[in-house]
Amino acid sequence: MGPGYWPQRLPSGSGTSRSSWSTPRRGVRWASAGLSGRAVSTPRFPRGLQYGRGAVDIAEIEAALPLLPPEDQKRLTELVAAYKVAKMYEFTWTPRQQACIDTMDELRKTVAVPEVLYGGAMGGGKSYLICAFLTQQAEQHPGASFYLCRKELKALKMSTLEVLLREVSICSRPGWVHRKSDTKFVHSNGSTILYGALASDDDRDRIKSMNLTGACIDESSEVEKESALLLKSRCNRNHNGKPFLLHATNPEPCWLEEIVKHPKNGQVYVPALPTDNLFLPAGYIEQIRDTYSDTPELFEAYINGVWGVIGTTDSIFDATELRACIFADVDPDAEESWGVDVARFGDDSTVVYSSLGRRIAQWERKDTRQTADDIAALFDSCEKEPTSIRVDDIGVGGGVVDNLASAGLPVIGIGAAERAIDSDRFFNRRAEMYWHVRNLVRAKAIRVPESDPLMSELLATKYEIRSGKILVEPKARIKKRLGRSPDLADAFVLAHAPTRPPTKRARYHTSKPFGL
Is this structure's pTM higher than 0.85? Predict the structure, then answer.
């Protein structure tokens, strides 16, 4: 009996109808320690063993084994064992994920390289779908080659690759080996899943040399259209399952809106909502709703999956709301903190703002020791000392932080580019700080100095949504548009920044300034 053969006839009295048996398709290699110490090559599920399609119960098949000839018993026992192993590693899809897979299967019958966009709201299971789908395809099509990517490799390793390793558990599935040095996963049937980026010229050069069966791009909104088209052109290998390109992303302003609103032949958009995902933890949707309660446009995008409600860039602050804060009531006895933006370049200024709504000082660029001396002198001259001094410690600001800390002042160094406290929502600390002040302005819980150029700097600051997170534009871009560096705005925001308590050393008193 050759491999892949399925008996068409059973002995009479077996209790199993002949219509339940058929010839299986070949192709998947399963490895199981329960079957042998090496990879065992077996066919796919025979039609009579397929789950959920009116198939014969596996217990009934096992009961019929003693009635078969010895050679048939052996082969059928192997198939039943392989089926049981396969069932252990069978993927469970949400209805929307299954709809996406079914759509892809239909398109692949008639379209050379179908392009499916699975996206929409957060919590729709996008990353899991593309990781599990690639794994399934690789196991079903020996010798196939796939590419899993995001714009940046670092982001891929921190997110998508974690889903592949921990949620899909690819390395725990039979036959898989992770070759980290080659950035790929290899299956014992000869299939591979390569992973990488789509941002640089080196990334694109690598892709040009590939011949792929299919590819999946996570957070496709980050990727340039030309890079995605290049990747699609490399999906040209047919291994039983025809080539494909699968996108996964949130509804952000990008070229993918063409697929949503004006799809071409072979392009389909499959929306995904958190309400479709039964595997989300309890309270997930309520948490997202609370997170974006102050930004209805983001709520519409990330909960309801609506495209086109997020602009490419938007102003963080509203002029009317800012003006209302000029006369906001602030308790003069409340704890006070200072924000210090240290000058870095020739025309920049060092600015000190108080959280009680007043500019304390501003001077041209000085060295770090002199700047620290001046801040310490301001601190000593206060009737009521601030509870913390928040300093932007990027570049020369780091030296100011070190000097103030050595003098025992309650200084907190804050890196605008460092990880946000709420990293699920904000791209970095800069975005988190500005958004916190935005909420204070909306609640009129902050005072903005009257007749101060601070107002124009705050109004000039814009934000965008990147990979589902809020990102405030960099100072260099604001400076180019405004004509000056937004040092006032940065110092003002630092004074109100959400922080952890400062580490305060014993104050070192001296009659000499720092460094002398």
Answer: no
